[in-house]
Description:
The protein is α/β, with parallel strands linked by helices. 33% of the residues lie in helices and 16% in strands. It contains 23 helices and 27 strands. It has a seven-stranded mixed β-sheet, covered by helices on one side. A six-stranded mixed β-sheet has the order 21-23-22-27-20-24. The longest helix has 19 residues, at 31-49. The radius of gyration is 25 Å and the shape is globular.
Amino acid sequence: xxxxxxxxxxxxxxxxxxxxxxxxxxxxxxxxxxxxxxxxxxxxxxxxxxxxxxxxxxxxxxxxxxxxxxxxxxxxxxxxxxxxxxxxxxxxxxxxxxxxxxxxxxxxxxxxxxxxxxxxxxxxxxxxxxxxxxxxxxxxxxxxxxxxxxxxxxxxxxxxxxxxxxxxxxxxxxxxxxxxxxxxxxxxxxxxxxxxxxxxxxxxxxxxxxxxxxxxxxxxxxxxxxxxxxxxxxxxxxxxxxxxxxxxxxxxxxxxxxxxxxxxxxxxxxxxxxxxxxxxxxxxxxxxxxxxxxxxxxxxxxxxxxxxxxxxxxxxxxxxxxxxxxxxxxxxxxxxxxxxxxxxxxxxxxxxxxxxxxxxxxxxxxxxxxxxxxxxxxxxxxxxxxxxxxxxxxxxxxxxxxxxxxxxxxxxxxxxxxxxxxxxxxxxxxxxxxxxxxxxxxxxxxxxxxxxxxxxxxxxxxxxxxxxxxxxxxxxxxxxxxxxxxxxxxxxxxxxxxxxxxxxxxxxxxxxxxxxxxxxxxxxxxxxxxxxxxxxxxxxxxxxxxxxxxxxxxxxxxxxxxxxxxxxxxxxxxxxxxxxxxxxxxxxxxxxxxxxxxxxxxxxxxxxxxxxxxxxxxxxxxxxxxxxxxxxxxxxxxxxxxxxxxxxxxxxxxx
Length: 655
């Protein structure tokens, strides 16, 4: 394959609505025809099969205001709580784990605090590539004297900056965390005052981790006992420490348990609730935090208010003049399962590309194609949009829309339209409201003068956002939630209450998570001897639909990356095409040799699915709590190709 053939496909910008004709092809349509067709399909599905036959996929790249209106449309117009977004694909375990420990699903610290901390622990995170803006703060922290440790199966670009790298086996994060916790306990480094005052379940936790001695953990994780001990002592004795993680922790079948295991370490040492000390999941998209905050998830109303809480639900019902179902809706994972069972018949997909971003992508495509009615609202004709019955051209939230977004540190910031949208493309909120009107909801509740009017409705319903007027957001260049007051600035960090001596002011204790080691579902064996893990590169973004249109001197297309030992054992060279197979599918990809990998471990990205569809290989083994799939741990084999491109002999992996 020539290098130019490995560049991502370029997608043309959508400039006018499309509808599927009687011959099965998408053709140009007027806005009235497209909106009428979209509304008719939703109406038909819900009238025939009930409101839960509909689902909304909202967008983590669109504004808070759009996500607020999208979830309101789902609950008020369609009468269901079936709304979710790509948060489910990546950081839903972070939200679930943080909520279980602290009652709040956001990271506890600000980016600034990473610059002023004493120790930075990057766990399952190649932030240098995946979160380059945040990593600038990390570099400032290192420059200011902070020590950094990296825990990652690969020796990544991030790990190269670390004082210590712990290269663990994929899927052994819990044993490693438990061994660190046990060592902290046995070394007498527990912050006893904090644990006794602010936590619960310590005795059970200590009993749980007791078997995970340094030597026992070394056998399972592959990390030398001395390195585990060094990290345990460094983290526990630091005055302030920041523990940061990304998808290397969450994209597992037990992702929520992984998050709880890391939070346990912060509870043991008191590294939470203080300036410079906290736990921080790093979000990969500009508004994945905000989408959840706005209620574009199946179990929470805007402001992270539980749908099962009758007081919270009643407040929204009075404002929206509707009745909200007192039960949780479907997660993204459950939606795809419901497509298979035909419980789900109609989907409104805004700005997402699940046909290529979901694990086991061939299955995802088949399920989407089987829907009775699929409406896609996007800026490009993605693979998902190509399956749609109606395609609605929207504005690009980052350049053509006014509103706000919320980043990983819970900071709400203004975004403003800088250019006019092309052709007939319309604002997301205008499109949603037009559909609401066609479905019998055309009153004042669906007429917004501008994005600020939407934001003010949200502020009136969410105490955490009430103090964030547009004027204040502009004045302070963003504010972090919770911000309940219009006359005071919010704290940069969460959970200072845990340090209060007064029990009433301290509030609920933070419980230790009693989680067990559970190895990856897709086991390696003689037929599939390599462990494939996936991730991102600096030059590309997600499924490549947006980044593929822009040239980058760093971009080299998709490869199957192997360590030098495995490349030698298979007799393959850089650039040589091989067949990569899992128990679900197979792709052909060229080889790249990366000395940062260890024997038995391979790496690929999801950035080039039109050329090499990596997600044909990944497994839909989902976290039972958060619904996130195990993208990080697939079993694969590679086979050499003969000169015709046919599969040749499989060579055993290096041992």
